[in-house]
């Protein structure tokens, strides 16, 4: 009697170690950030200033408004009779400069983020409407953009603040009224291309209303463009706020603002250089950090603009 022989076929079983799950987008972004020292430096600078802005009382050694003329124009590292050290020196009114710089971060970030958000909302909305409708609507919005571009920004901002009065809200309003145009044109161009996609045509054929098409279908396609513009213009917004405060039409004193500190220090450059130098360094570092971080965000969100790593 013949005995049949059966062959056992072994099927390799893939284990978790051989085929680990794909990393998430967040983990990939963190890895890419750690591999790019300039972007990491920018991230650290921005996070430091954000922490300053959120909880300045944790880091500021003194009240930024407290004046003491006996300690006016003291150099960095000055130690008073009570043993307190003024690490960044004092200004012409005896106020602790380090405390004012830390509290000034809140003003700069509030103005920067709110102005970017407000101008972005206006610009994205007008860009969506202009690109989708075209025709007369597009022509009218395009002419408004041309008129806005023809008006010098400083002149427009100073006129608005002169009429409404200097305040934090009016500074933000003056910046948003002029800077929305940097969103409108790129968004309009992106919508002109996106509205020709087949799924947009299908949405129209299925009876979708225009607001739903704009918000549900077109907005997600242009949102990355708007985010890239916002990250690149955030630093510029902070510079504009500092410029207005330096000219005396920004955030009114005694509120600590970096531009106002620079204006105070220009009269003491030969005798008390630290009044202007330290706020200027803080302004430079935060804007540099935002720009470096913005370059990384641009490369991450827009592969067409991705550059070769060094």
Description:
The protein is built from eleven helices and two strands; from the N terminus they run H-H-E-E-H-H-H-H-H-H-H-H-H. It is mainly alpha-helical. The protein has a single domain, classed as MetI-like fold. Helix content is 65%, strand content 1%. Helix 9 (210-247) runs antiparallel to helix 11 (274-301) and helix 10 packs antiparallel against helix 11 (274-301). Strands 1-2 form a two-stranded antiparallel ribbon. The radius of gyration is 27 Å and the shape is elongated. A hairpin with a 5-residue loop joins strand 1 (78-79) and strand 2 (85-86).
CATH level-two architecture: Orthogonal Bundle
CATH superfamily: MetI-like
Give the total of domains: 1
Overall shape: it is: elongated
Identify low-pLDDT runs.
Answer: 305-310
Largest β-sheet summary: 2 strands, antiparallel
Write the layout of secondary structure elements.
Elements: H1 25-34, H2 37-54, E1 78-79, E2 85-86, H3 97-133, H4 135-150, H5 153-164, H6 168-179, H7 181-194, H8 198-205, H9 210-247, H10 258-265, H11 274-301
Antiparallel strand pairs: 1-2
